[in-house]
Every structure is written in structure tokens, then in C-alpha cells.
Design goal:
This protein has about 180 residues and is an all-alpha fold. The chain contains eight helices and no strands.
Length: about 180
């Protein structure tokens, strides 16, 4: 059953229903607003780390406040951005759902191994296969200082630095500072 659901998502997702996509975008925006309101410390921490690490910069751009602003811009100007957004989703979907780059991990009871393996193999058969070039993404580490304003009764402050650049090595005492 789960394999069938995954196969449906991987091989049959449609992006042409603009009204449904706008509903999903609005749902995402509402969930992110709730998260920002309830987890202000995580927002501050995520923004801080995004200036110190390429991996955290990626997280910020794909899940953090930067992504929230991106979703807000799309929702606000949907009529002008609809076609470009749909095209971008289709491109990303084709890139991600490619037989040549998929890795499958399976955890099942031993007696279900053959059945599940056969279903997965069939699902992979239905997937598209195309050559692809790995994406080269580079995120710059910065020394940016910023303040974020959000209508709330609580203030969150985050400060940080790269302790290795200051000449320190990691040790258990840093857990106390954290």
C-alpha cells in the first residue's frame, strides 16, 4: 500500500491546477507563520547559523525565514507568478524524480521482502530516466548583522561566531555554552 502511494506521487503528480497550488501555498504560509510565532528562538538561531555555514544557509533558503518570504511573494503576486512557479515545480519534479539519481532504502519483515522489492522495481520502471548534471550550489558565509521584527510579546536574541576561526577546538565545555 505504501509503495503504491509513493509510486503515485513519484510518477503521477500534476502541477497544472493553479487554484489547488495556490491553496497549498496558502496552507504552507499559514503553517510557517504559526511556526515563526511559536518558535522565534529557532528562527533567530537558524538565521544566525545561515551566516556561518553553507549547510545552514541552504536550510535557511529552503526552510527558514528566507523561504517564508519567498512563499509570501508568490502568494501575494500569484497571478503574475503562477506560470513561472508551475514551470519551476515541473523542472524540480523532473530533476528529483529521475531513475538515475534515486536511492531506495527498504525496511520490512523478511517474509515481505520479495513482494515489496517487486513493487518497488515496478515503480522504478514507471519513472523517467534522463541524464542530469549535479547542481552546483555555493553559499557565502557572511558577517552580516541583522534585526528581525515580528509582532510578539517575546524578544529573541542570538549571537554566534565560528569558534574554530578563533583558534578553539570542540570540547565538551562548549555544550555548556550551548
Amino acid at each position: 500500500e505504501q509503495v503504491a502511494i509513493m509510486r503515485e506521487i513519484i510518477t503521477n503528480t500534476q502541477f497544472d491546477n493553479g487554484e489547488r497550488l495556490l491553496e497549498i501555498i496558502r496552507e504552507m504560509k499559514a503553517l510557517m507563520e504559526s511556526s515563526i510565532s511559536g518558535d522565534g528562538h529557532r528562527v533567530a538561531y537558524g538565521r544566525l547559523l545561515s551566516h556561518l555555514s553553507s549547510a545552514e544557509a541552504f536550510e535557511e533558503k529552503t526552510k527558514g525565514l528566507t523561504f517564508y518570504h519567498f512563499v509570501c511573494e508568490i502568494e501575494k503576486d500569484w497571478e503574475n507568478r503562477k506560470e513561472k512557479t508551475i514551470a519551476g515545480l515541473k523542472t524540480a519534479y523532473a530533476y528529483l524524480n529521475n531513475k538515475k539519481r534515486i536511492v531506495v532504502g527498504v525496511t520490512v519483515d523478511e517474509d515481505l521482502t520479495q513482494t515489496v522489492t517487486e513493487e518497488i522495481t515496478q515503480g522504478l520502471y514507471d519513472m523517467q530516466e534522463a541524464d542530469y548534471s549535479p547542481l552546483q550550489m555555493k553559499f557565502e558565509v557572511s558577517e552580516e548583522k541583522e534585526a528581525l521584527i515580528y509582532p510578539s510579546q517575546v524578544n529573541y536574541v542570538a549571537t554566534g561566531y565560528n569558534f574554530k576561526e578563533a583558534g578553539y577546538n570542540y570540547n565538551g565545555g562548549l555544550m555548556m555554552l550551548k
